Amino acid sequence: VLENQDLPDSIKPQKVEFHSLNFNTTLHWQPGWAREARDALYFVQYKVYGQSTWQNKDECWGISSHFCDLTYETSDIQEPYYSRVRAALAGVYSNWSLSCRFTPWQETMIGPPMVTVVHSNKSITVKLQAPHSPYKRKRGSKIPMTNYYDLLYQVFIINNLLDEQHRVLVYEGKDKVIKIQDLRPGVSYCIVAKMYMPILDHSSAYSSRQCTVV
Fold first, then answer.
1. Average of pLDDT values for 93-98?
2. Is residue 103 part of a domain?
3. Which family is it part of (predicted)?
4. What residues pair up with 26 in beta bridges, in sequence order?
5. pLDDT of 131-168, one tens digit each?
6. Which residue segment(s) compose the domain that 72 sits in?
């Protein structure tokens, strides 16, 4: 068993990091190195860079999990934020572990678009929908990520006769409905798409494949 004076160091949370996708933002950390640390409880605070006082995150105060949702605490997406976590075990508290600075607008990852394909005579019509943020308009609908960034759709076609891994870029732009024509009848084609953000040179992951036989 650890000496009590070693306990604060040994349970101190490690690797405190923000993870963010489409502005859904979660703080993650790892438990301290002591075996006992797995029984620790965690306490999370956050603040905007430059503020002097830390805010408690009430839903993440004395929790046993290793993550905390800060989506609504970081909703001013141009502001830089910090968060910090401490652990407690057997009445002993660790020091705070500080995250790096996190600015949602610069650092959130963009998710892929939703893709639906409809085939007709020697052509495929592709319908695209940008991902949504968690933030809502007054009427209650979620605000799409295209409201926050100048985003382009990139659409790729895979000819399954040739090579599963060979994706050909067939469209880049803002249209939500595109038509790919002059395809070979009886051939199976798959479509994948990405969101591309020119200003930060970021791309989303690929969407899931939508396949059809023309």
1. 96
2. no
3. Belongs to the type II cytokine receptor family.
4. 19, 69
5. 999 999 999 999 999 999 999 999 999 987 776 678 99
6. 6-98
